[in-house]
């Protein structure tokens, strides 16, 4: 079976992402608009550093999407106009220490540069981008796999690609069904926190907060240190978890809802079309159709997250959603409930398929292919590549 990790992101420069926004910068406005280029850093790592540097809250910094960490990415961020920032700012991260720099070698160094490109009257929010342009080098692609790639590319050009959520959505999930969110929903906040910190290191000294802090200190963000020190001071687990930034707590909910949505789509495809099954993370599977007899219907189909606010007219989908929600023990009272200070299991719509635009082969060697393409906001290049390489 195809292992995506051996084909992409061997170097950050193998995976280049450029965000596209649907408006032009203005000459003045309530928010400064910066173009942020980063390498081997997550968007949130940069946002947390900037909030400390500029002495503002992380929530004051707006961005339209979370970009890959192990990649070279360009995106836009907004900062209130009354915050004093140089026109250009570069920092390198060396061993956890941030060092100011004149410029950065994005192919070799971990760091970021941001440059003011204008102003806007609206703070950027998640989803405000039009989409992203990608240039990706696919390595270790032998003769037989190259044939598979070109065969699958013809299918994608004709029928699009199933619009699954990619692995970036599941950073808080350690095992197959080990969702932090489900522990929170059941009220077991201690188990939720144990699962969260197990991703950081050993739980050997759980409960002895001084030793636990010592064991994990080198791997912790500042807010995670604050949480453990809060437990040491006698905070309850229920109060301590709220020390995690809201966007981190929201990720627990998003990870579970994204998993459910992926399962809806996988089951739907397997019920209607000829398909191939592909390995995903945590031994999960994704299924991609290889032929579609109702493409006009499918390309316009939008799938709800819960079906509570947005009704489901497709009878097959309605049945699948009900079965999967029942399987995980989700009750009517859980929808829109407040858990750990966030509203969970809320509804929304997501397109069932996407069509990559301007897909081009821009480079070839004996064992690699470099491709460029544009994807609409919310669609994942890693999902497209899993489809093309399987």
Unreliable runs: none
Form type: globular
Q: Round the mean pLDDT to the nearest integer and report it.
A: 93
Rg (CA only): 22 Å
Secondary structure tally: strands: 18
**Structure annotation, total helices:** 11
SS-derived structural category: alpha+beta
Straight-line N-to-C gap = 7 Å
Q: In which range does the helix fraction lie?
A: 25-40%
Return the string of H and E elements: EEHEEEEEEHEHHHHHHEEHEHEEEEEEH
Percent strand equals: 15-25%
How many strands, which pairing sense, and closed or not: the largest β-sheet? 10 strands, mixed
Account of the 3D structure:
Strands 1, 2, 3, 4, 5, 6, 7, 8, 17 and 18 form a 10-stranded mixed sheet that branches. Strands 9-16 form a two-stranded antiparallel ribbon. Strands 10-11 form a two-stranded antiparallel sheet. It is 31% helix and 25% strand. The chain folds into 2 domains: 106 residues, Alpha-Beta Plaits (2-Layer Sandwich), CATH 3.30.70.3160; 193 residues, no CATH class. It is built from 11 helices and 18 strands. The protein is globular. It is of the alpha+beta class and 390 residues long. This is tRNA pseudouridine synthase D. It catalyses: uridine(13) in tRNA = pseudouridine(13) in tRNA.
Give a short synopsis of this structure:
31% of the residues lie in helices and 25% in strands. It has 390 residues and is α+β, with helices and mostly antiparallel strands. The termini are close together.
Q: Which descriptors would you attach to this protein?
A:
tRNA processing, alpha+beta, 390 residues, Alpha-Beta Plaits, 18 strands, 2 domains, PsdUridine_synth_TruD, 31% helix, PsdUridine_synth_TruD_insert, isomerase
């Amino acid at each position: 079976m195809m292992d995506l990790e051996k084909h992409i992101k061997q170097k950050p420069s193998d995976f280049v992402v450029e965000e596209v926004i649907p408006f032009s910068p203005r000459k003045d406005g309530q928010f400064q608009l910066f173009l942020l280029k980063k390498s081997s850093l997550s968007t949130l790592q940069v946002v947390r550093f900037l909030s400390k540097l500029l002495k503002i809250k992380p929530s004051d910094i707006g961005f339209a999407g979370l970009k890959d960490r192990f990649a070279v990415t360009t995106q836009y961020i907004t900062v209130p106009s009354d915050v004093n920032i140089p026109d250009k700012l570069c920092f390198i991260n060396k061993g956890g220490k941030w060092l100011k720099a004149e410029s950065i070698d994005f192919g070799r160094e971990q760091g970021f540069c941001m440059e003011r490109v204008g102003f806007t009257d609206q703070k950027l929010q998640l989803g405000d981008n039009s989409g992203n342009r990608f240039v990706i080098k696919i390595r270790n692609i032998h003769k037989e796999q190259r044939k598979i790639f070109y065969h699958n590319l013809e299918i994608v050009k004709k029928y699009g690609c199933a619009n699954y959520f990619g692995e970036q959505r599941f950073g808080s999930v350690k095992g197959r069904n080990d969702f932090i969110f489900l522990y929170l929903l059941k009220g077991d906040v201690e188990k939720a926190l144990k699962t969260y910190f197990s991703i950081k290191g050993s739980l050997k000294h759980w409960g002895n907060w001084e030793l636990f802090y010592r064991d994990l200190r080198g791997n912790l963000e500042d807010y995670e240190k604050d949480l453990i020190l809060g437990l040491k001071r006698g905070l309850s687990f229920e109060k301590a978890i709220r020390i995690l930034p809201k966007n981190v707590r929201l990720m627990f909910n998003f990870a579970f809802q994204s998993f459910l949505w992926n399962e809806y789509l996988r089951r739907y495809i397997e019920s209607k079309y000829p398909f191939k099954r592909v390995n995903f993370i945590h031994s999960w599977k994704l299924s991609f159709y290889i032929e579609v007899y109702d493409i006009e219907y499918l390309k316009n189909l939008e799938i709800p997250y819960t079906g509570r606010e947005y009704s489901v007219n497709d009878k097959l989908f309605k049945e699948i959603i009900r079965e999967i929600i029942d399987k995980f023990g989700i009750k009517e009272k859980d929808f829109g409930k407040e858990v750990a200070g966030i509203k969970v299991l809320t509804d929304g719509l997501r397109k069932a398929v996407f069509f990559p635009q301007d897909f081009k082969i821009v480079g070839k060697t004996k064992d690699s292919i470099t491709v460029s393409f544009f994807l609409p906001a919310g669609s994942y290049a890693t999902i497209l590549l899993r489809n093309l390489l399987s």
